[in-house]
Amino acid sequence: MALDAASQVSVGALSAIFDERNPQVQEPIVQCVQIKPLPPQPNHPERYRAVFSDITNYVQTMLATQANHFVTSGMLKKGCFVRLKSFQANSVKGKKILIILDLEVLQELGEAEKIGEPKPLENKSDVEEKPQPTTISSNGFYGSKIQPQRVESGVQPTRSPLASTHATIYPIEYISPFSNKWTIKARCTSKSTIKTWHNRNSEGRLFSVNLLDDSGEIRATGFNEQCDMLYDVFQEGGVYYISTPCRVQIAKKQFTNLNNDYEITFERGTVVEKAEDQSDVPQVRFNFTTVGDLQSVEKDTTIDVVGVLKEVGEISQIVSKSTNKPYDKRELTLVDSSGFSVRLTVWGTTALNFSATPESVIAFKGVKVSDFGGRSLSLLSSGSMTIDPDIEEAHRLKGWYDAQGRHETFSSHASMSSASSSAGKLDRFKTVAQIREEQLGMSDEAAYFSCRATVIYIKQDTICYPACLSQGCNKKVTELDPGQWRCESCDKTHLRPEYRYIMLINVSDHTGQLWLSCFDEVGRQLLGISADELMDMRQSESNLAGEVFQEANCRTWNFRCRAKLDHYGDQPRIRYQVSSAKAINYSEEASRLMNLIQSYNLS
């Protein structure tokens, strides 16, 4: 079998891939001689790297996340043979690296020990090339430690049967400060209005767009000259080629809800071109929260929601207290199969030009959760709205509404009790052991429960964050200078922030322990003081802050919680979020226990 497989291997293909003087290599067949996972990164999917051999040479590779299933399913393993269907070639001084976007495991060729004695794919000319400024480093695949290397001129063309002006298309998920030259092909899913800013040192204007391809999303911003040049180029829904130079930096999470650690800034030489072929780029990526789950979503959280349009309000106008400017608004009512309705407000031109008819299905990306009237929603300026989208969730909602939803009566989020009873989710007391044994939160819908538990530990390193003082904002602010805290969301600078709790606590009962996440309202209850007061204590008398935590420990509460399945990278985890906490009323607790005992009376 090994001899037969060896005859199928594309001998010399790896060298040809990195040699621009040779014809492009189409779908070479190679042997996998090693594979192992990269060290895990928090909030990132698991990544794998492998070594492929063409008998003459071997090369290090990294699998794109969309190819992870070949490893997790057990198909791609040491000794097997694969056809490389789509890949990108990187040159690193003294080292060649392939990024594998797609492959095919040739199971009919079986598995074999490493064939031949392949040599590492290196050459002297690569070492002598002038390096670029950015650096990367890693451990060698065969255990040797390589010194920090400098990234070379960038990505070689993707080996595709069709050559074009943009032969090298870089996935958004690979953009980082270590990437030099790249071109992405992405859809503009959202475009902001032009905003202006003024401070002591400068003033200017900016706009931002959200960009999407099949690997991920990223936020891009243009300032001043780039704002003037590119604002009219981008249209929501359009697909564009965007080529470096662009500045890549850590994403400011207070301004975006996209799942990306980086964002890009357009520079003077940035090239943006409209793409004629748009079929290979997805329309939009959603992470929906059902209307029924809104009660357990923290106030001021940004979410996506899809629902059937039940009612359309008239256009109205409000005047901002802070700017004294008028704003147009329109209130909509959405419903979904959870049995709940919610009011959603759209603003400005979206409100004026709103044309959807009742009973349309509408998907909203980037809406802010408010606790007004229990729970309500507001479409952010960076958000977007799609009427009757061609997605599975919309088709399912349309089918449900036509079959039964049209005749149903819907509940609002006026109170936690109505939310619980209308959704059929009873306020059930559970022990920690029951919570785990019943796997609450593992289904598609969130689970609600109450537990009586004692606080045994409060995680203190990230207990609060500096928030904007503007009414209804609460976004994180950044300290520019002493006495200058900047909120990009509402475009304001404050003398100080308002600190808000975001806590992790460990609680225990007689059956086990559980980690719970708490936000500002619950944090004030547990500690008895505001986050501002706590920060003042830390800055003046640290002993006082320690006493606050000591006093909060070993106190028992009735916690109202929500269990919901989240994903950290590719790993599913249940997140337990506290909606409310109440001190023990021993009279009520005694009555509850008496009723519980009586329920076991079989006579």
Automatic annotation (TrEMBL):
GO terms for cellular component: chromatin; chromosome, telomeric repeat region; DNA replication factor A complex; site of double-strand break. Residues 116-131 have a biased composition (Basic and acidic residues). Residues 9-107 form the Replication factor-A protein 1 N-terminal domain. Residues 132-141 have a biased composition (Polar residues). Pfam families: Rep-A_N, Rep_fac-A_C, REPA_OB_2. Residues 448-593 form the Replication factor A C-terminal domain. It is found in: Nucleus. Residues 116-141 are annotated as: Disordered. The keyword Nucleus applies. It comes from the Eukaryota. SUPFAM superfamilies: Nucleic acid-binding proteins. Keywords: DNA replication, DNA-binding, Metal-binding, Nucleus, Zinc, Zinc-finger. Residues 292-388 form the Replication protein A OB domain. The keyword Mitochondrion does not apply. InterPro entries: Euk_RPA1_DBD_C, NA-bd_OB-fold, Rep_factor-A_C, Rep_factor-A_N, REPA_OB_2, Rfa1. GO terms for biological process: DNA recombination; DNA repair; nuclear DNA replication; telomere maintenance via telomerase. Coiled coil: none annotated. GO terms for molecular function: single-stranded DNA binding; zinc ion binding. As part of the replication protein A (RPA/RP-A), a single-stranded DNA-binding heterotrimeric complex, may play an essential role in DNA replication, recombination and repair. Binds and stabilizes single-stranded DNA intermediates, preventing complementary DNA reannealing and recruiting different proteins involved in DNA metabolism. Component of the heterotrimeric canonical replication protein A complex (RPA). NCBIfam families: rpa1. Belongs to the replication factor A protein 1 family. This is Replication protein A subunit. It comes from Aspergillus clavatus (strain ATCC 1007 / CBS 513.65 / DSM 816 / NCTC 3887 / NRRL 1 / QM 1276 / 107).
